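User: Hello, can you help with two protein structures?

Assistant: Certainly.
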Amino acid sequence: MFETVLFPIDQSRQTMETAAVALELAKTHGSRLVVLSVVEAEEGAMHNAAAVAKLLEQARASFEQAGVPCEMLEREGKPAFVIGDVADEINADVIVMGTRGISLESSEPSTAARLIQLAPCPVLVVP
């Protein structure tokens, strides 16, 4: 059902919690798992390319230890737009991501809220 699962990651606690869902989905369906990290052009936690590379390597090790091979991608730009573009590029069947808030509605839209509007495939948002 889900041939390709896209799992965007960042340095948040929610990413680690969401990883279990992405892992289980990929295992259950024998899916190709693609892990994506977006380096933001603006200052912030995901602005440091070395930190992003380390994050990707930790994710790879974690998934491979669980017996699920994964592909790693690193891109630059605004996260919601880049995630949507990559999902289209790799023909993702689902995007699995976490959210930091308890609601997708706020004065400042979250990446998850924006992605729901932009994505070319279903988005599984893990609270």
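That covers the first. Now for the second protein you mentioned:
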Amino acid sequence: MKLQTEQAQLDRLFQSLADPYRRAMVTRLVKGPASMSELSAMLHLALPSTLKHLQVLENGGMVASSKQGRVRTFAIDRQGLATMQSWLTEHQRQLNAGFDRLEALMRATPEEKQP
């Protein structure tokens, strides 16, 4: 059951980054929190469209929001980035281990002599 939950979380994280507008928002938010209006102006999007993208990012676990008065501010959710980084690191480790095994096999195999 835990594996299914982790897979579902990864699915939401990667899906939230599948759109270029959302990736641009994440790129901006890595620099620091921003209001919905700031993000909307930066991307030349209407506020309702910006809100929909931010909701996808928030539901995916990439951003968190807070509201102070009438201003909603968004910031990167470090846990979402850590989850993705962990997944990528593990797959990179497995890929490197495969290359290491291939290299060891190639070293152990004598070269054929050319006539």
